[in-house]
Please model this.
Amino acid sequence: MKILITAGPTREALDPVRYLSNRSSGKMGYALAEAARDAGHDVVLVTGPVSITPPDKVQVVRVESAAEMFEAVRTHLSACDVAIFAAAVADYRPAEVAPQKIKKATDELVLHLVRTPDILGSARGEFGFKGVLVGFAAETTDLIAHAQDKCLRKRCDLIVANDVSQPGIGFDSSDNAVTLCFADGTVEPIAQASKSAIARGIVTVVERLQKHRDSARD
Ligand code: CTP
Model:
């Protein structure tokens, strides 16, 4: 199969030297890319700026902002059978990028932010993607309910739900514990493990979803 994976944070420029971003390390997305490659799949890794090295033998597309990630996904998605959106895309960006460094002229500075494009939410509609679609959800409350709602709204086959209120897992750490929320309403927990082990589990589930899709077409 050909699998597109998004990973890492995005950076939303404020001026030539500053940006808004988040603590995503890219580890989960990179672990997914490695696990998918090891399982024999072709991988396109669309990655925001991170400090880790991408796995060998995957196609790497580097982007900075949510808008750039949106365009890179648009370019590569139609050739793929599966898309896994593990990136922590900024939901807002500064409305304007100052052409020069902003000087500290006042005691307060109010930033005007506007929404970034919803890449996962554009997959089915705007991009016309018909393959297996997997999103991630980072939640601090009502994990399953929010993830199931996201799964339906974005027309995903699977949402990988992360409880980011738990210490030692998720953002910026090597371990994770997730709950898989499927489009049919079923849920499957994956207990705390390394992101590599979790990634292998997710790739196996994605292969199962792809087989179901193929047999439904026969
Ligand atoms: N995502 C995306 N494009 C965005 C924002 C998010 O593709 N502009 C993807 C992420 O890669 C992830 C999923 O959407 O797969 C996260 O969904 P989102 O609705 O942003 O979830 P949260 O960040 O948990 O936000 P909220 O609680 O506001 O719904």
In short: The chain is about 30% helix and 30% strand. Residues 6, 66, 85, 87, 89, 91, 116-120, 135-139, 150 surround cytidine-5'-triphosphate (CB under 6 Å). The CA atoms of residues 71 and 119 lie 9 Å apart. The two ends are 18 Å apart (CA to CA).
